[in-house]
Amino acid sequence: MTESKPDLSPLLPDDATLKARRATLVDAVSPGGRGPQPATGWRRRGLRVALGAATAIVAIAVALIVSAGGDNAPAAFAVEPQEDGGVKIKVYSLEDASGLEKALEDAGIQAQVTWLPAGKVCREPHFTPSRVKLPGDGTMGGFTMGGPGAMTITVGSTQTWRERFGELMRGEISNQDYRSSTGNVNLDPKALRPDQSVVLSGAPVPHDGDPEGGSVAKLGIAEGPVGPCEPVPAPPSGSGSFGLSAGGGPDYTPVGDEALPQTAIAEALRQTATAAEASDTPVEAPPGPGRFLYTKTKVVQLQGWLPKGSETRPAGSKKNPRYFTANLTGSPDVRNALVPTLKEVWTAPDGTTRERETLGRVAFFSGTDQRLWEEAGSPPPFAYDSDEHDVSRDSSGRLVKDFAAKSFRGRHEFAYLSRVSRLPTEPEPLRLAIENRRGGSSPVDPSPADSLRGGATVERILEILSEPITSPALRAAAFNALAEIPGIGFERDVADVAGRRGDAISWVRERGFGRRFIFDPHTSKILAEAEMIFKAKPAEYPGVPDGTVFRETAYLQSGIVDSACERSSDGAAPRVR
Amino acid sequence: MAADTELWDRTRSGDAEAFGDLYEHHARAVQSYCLWRTADLQAAEDATATVFLEAWRKRQRLTLSGDSAAPLLLGIANNVVRRHWRSQRRYRDTLERVRNVGQAPNDLEAEAIARVDAIQQLRDGGEAIRALPRREREVLALLAWGDLSYGEISEALGLPTGTVRSRLARARTRLGDAFPDTTAATRPAEEPL
Questions:
Q1: Taking the model in full, what pTM does it have?
Q2: Quick one: B94 and B184 in the same domain?
Q3: Would you call B8 an interface residue with chain A, using a CB distance cutoff of 8 Å?
């Protein structure tokens, strides 16, 4: 066997890459609020690592000092020409925004720069967000950075940065050399389309005892015209005003009804908490031997169909190219459809499951696509491909998979449920437990929902509320905890994929994916959770309108039953559109 | 570095650095396995990062039953590869960051050629095994590419050891000479076939 194994070493990360990836992962999983910022230079959040590849080249000695005001005023920033014809701009203080705009324009970058007083941010949105390509394969749409000391902006060529990065990777220059020549922002004029420009804003923040000892700045990439920056008060969270507070970038933007003031949202959430408390839903204990947890959900998933099959046949299936699956995006030929599945799961206490999945009616986004698919013989999605799975038909002719499996959580499914049942049932202790700060060493932190920690807390609370077994007291505490978190995106009267209506808590991630939890305000039950696509590139999801569900799970029914054939409570036959 | 059991205990209590050590111990093994299953470098790199992010997310619910974290990680890898779109959606942003770390410049021609060659060999070499039914394929892949013992495979897949053995036997029957049983010679097999 050994001789039939190809040598994979060219495909495995080398030591330097392994270490760097380790650092990225550790950074990604570390909880927010790991203490104060280091007092050396600026730190970029969010896409820091992705941009690390775009280093500045070594500065040469001459620096042109651009004066900020009168002859004796200290310069707000300095411009240093670079060997490759680019420039490095060191920003010393948040003054002379128009001078900095001019310096960037001279270097080939259209920019709007706004320096604000402490505690202010620009009202958003005041431009259409866009993305630029980075060296390597990534793209960048903006980030927030902050710290004491000077911020550096380099303008130059991606090619030069890439060569510099190669020198680092080959060990020809030290990490320190590499870092010292890195700008906090590296911009290549060629990477920006003519209609794209850079939007930079910043404000002082307290640092090291000095109320204006540090600063934060936010960089965005705009497409088309940029409106003026209208200063508005920052959300109430110290340096979190730019989403910097909790170790992450601004990747959580609440969406909802803008006419609803925060007080109304908090009140609505508290009312739902009251409804939860008042409900006399019996709390079922996790099942013992011989009993099963039964759940029924309707899952609607966006999938792509390639009428001619997949040319670059993905591995894993030799005979059956996967030409109708969820991950076929980016091809101009792909036809998108919403694929509904009714999913029933019976889970035994040892974690083994019986799962029954029924395929509903596949719906393409255009009638033309629908006909094309039907004329091709309505080939089922890959998950129901009978060459790859055991598929049968039910009495209505729908495709059904009925199989034994292992719970996603393995034998810990019920241990997890009982842990949920032991969570505190008071809002503040619940929140501290969720944030893993039960020890109380950190003070109560009112991070708004649009900070990373606040966002993670909101998401976690909603996930707990989506568990099949939760007590009225826990649900009430959860909604009351949500009511205390400022900045939640709230929508009224939203329908789920099963046609039920409720209110929703929603947000959008930077990458254009949104999440929405729909709940019934009268019972506090989570009806459905969805991931949606926002501002997708037309090439990625052709024919898919904004706000389309990428995947939505509607929670239809759950309960404890005595056999893996039985359905809980109403016992109605499963229905799927 | 410390033993996996200690690192996992610390990971479970939220120690991100211990988790980082586990990553350094096992990332290449996980990536090798994902490479074999996908024959696609970027898919394997994304899957590898996803495996660790999933392990972190579920750390409270997962326990090591032996001395090594490999069965646990490769068990997750098996799930991630099988339905990778589902779990990776959650980690989109982080995956992009990880992917961009340490990315070699595109113009290192010799390295690029070596990579293309290795991918081609993977695609050619794995054809017979990929043609197996999924259940047999998974067991075989964990044995051949995950370097797991039978006991560890049964842990990774949540199957009885007997089932692992019978699936392997069936796979070997189907493959015939394409997959000679050299296991016993190259490693101390705990359960000879």
A1: 0.47
A2: no
A3: no
The strand pair at A139-140 and A132-133 is best described as: antiparallel
The answer to whether A463 and A456 have CB atoms below 8 angstroms apart is no
Instruction: Please answer yes or no on whether B102 and A317 come within 8 Å at the CB atom.
Output: no
| Euclidean distance between the first and the last CA atom of chain B, given in angstroms as a whole number | 35
Q: Which residue has the tokens 């779109």?
A: B85
- Cβ neighbors of B157 (< 8 A, separation 6 or more) are B75, B78, B138, B139, B142, B164
Domain hosting residue B72, numbered range? 1-102+113-125
Residue A445 or residue A128, greater confidence: A128
| Relative orientation angle of helices B161-175 and B150-157, to the nearest 10 degrees | 110
Confirm whether B84 is domain-assigned. yes
Beta bridge partners of A115: A202
Tens digit of pLDDT for each residue in A272-284?
Answer: 999 999 887 777 7
List of chain B residues whose C-beta atoms are within 8 Å of the C-beta of residue A26: 16-17, 19-20, 23
My answer on whether B153 and B74 are in the same domain is no
B147 found inside a domain? yes
Sign of CA dihedral A316, A321, A327, A329: positive
Q: From the list A25, A406, A551, which residue is nearest B52 (CB)?
A: A25
Instruction: Please enumerate, as own/partner, the contacts of A136-140 that have beta carbons within 8 Å and a separation of 24 or more.
Output: A136/A50, A136/A53, A136/B100, A136/B103, A137/B99, A137/B100, A137/B103, A138/A47, A138/A50, A138/B96, A138/B99, A138/B100, A140/A47, A140/A50, A140/A51, A140/A221
ipTM of the complex: 0.81
Q: Are both B155 and B117 inside the same structural domain? A: no
Residues B80 and B96 occupy one common structural domain: yes
Number of separate domains in chain B:
2
Partners of A316 on chain B (C-beta within 8 Å) are: 37-38, 81, 130
Could you tell me the CATH number of the domain that includes residue B35? 1.10.1740.10
User: Tokens 């030929």 — which residue?
Assistant: A333
Q: What is the pLDDT of residue B89?
A: 62
For residue B62, list chain A residues with Cβ-Cβ distance below 8 A. Answer: 410, 412
Q: Are residues B140 and B65 in the same domain?
A: no
B82 lies in the same domain as B147: no
Residue B56 lies in a domain: yes
* DSSP tally for chain A: helices H, then strands E: 11, 28
Q: What's the rounded Cα separation, in Å, for the pair A390 and A368?
A: 31
Query: Highest-confidence range of A324-328, A474-478, B138-142, by mean pLDDT?
Result: A474-478
Domain-embedded: residue B108: no
- Domain co-membership, B83 together with B52: yes
Cβ–Cβ of B49/A21 closer than 8 Å? Answer: yes
A173's tokens: 């220059």
Task: Taking residues A482-496, report their average pLDDT.
Answer: 89
CA distance A463 to chain B (A): 13
Co-location of B20 and B44 in the same domain: yes
Run of H or E residues at A503: strand A501-508
> Chain A 365-404, CB below 8 Å of chain B: which residues?
388
pLDDT of the residue at A361: 93
The per-residue pLDDT for range A17-61, each reduced to its tens digit, is 788 788 878 877 775 422 222 223 343 332 222 222 222 222 222
Is A232 an interface residue toward B (CB < 8 Å)? no
Dihedral angle computed from the Cα positions of residues B25, B31, B36 and B42, in that order, rounded to the nearest 10 degrees: -170
Give SS3 for B23: helix
CA A10 to chain B, closest CA, distance in angstroms equals 5
> Measured on CA atoms in the order A396, A401, A406, A409, is the torsion positive or negative?
negative
Give the rounded distance of the alpha carbon of B149 from its chain centre: 13
Q: Which residues fall within 8 angstroms of residue B181, CB to CB, at 6 or more apart?
A: A1, B172, B193
CB-nearest to A7 from B62, B118, B181 is B118
Q: Do A388 and B114 touch (CB under 8 A)?
A: no
Residue A223 in contact with residue A128, Cβ under 8 Å?
yes
Rounded Cα distance, A229 and A242, in Å: 15
